[in-house]
Amino acid sequence: MGFFKTLLRMNLNRIGNVTGSDFTNCYLSPTKKDNMPALMIYGVGKNDYIFNKADVKEFSIIETGTILVLEGKRYTGNKYRVVFNDGKSALLSIPSGNCQKIEQVLY
Hints:
Number of helices: 2
Number of strands: 7
Strand order of the largest sheet: 4-3-2-1-7-6-5
Helix content: 10-25%
């Protein structure tokens, strides 16, 4: 990973965790795509995956008010399932305080 990409990731506002067969040990942050609000999945040694509503085939809430453990801390939040137009899928674990950020981009 290049120096500037490392700096960019250090300054990201991490809003949740991402798991799934296509994304393991990844994180979620808000970003922009074509000057529109978007989300970015990223992880150590992985390419960034930037997406917005146009890239999503299915988006659903699979659990609400569930206990999430993120970075060793317990939060209450939601779990979402996302299926992308390219066939990839992800499970997003988002603390309650950040759920609106996800839903604003994907609904």
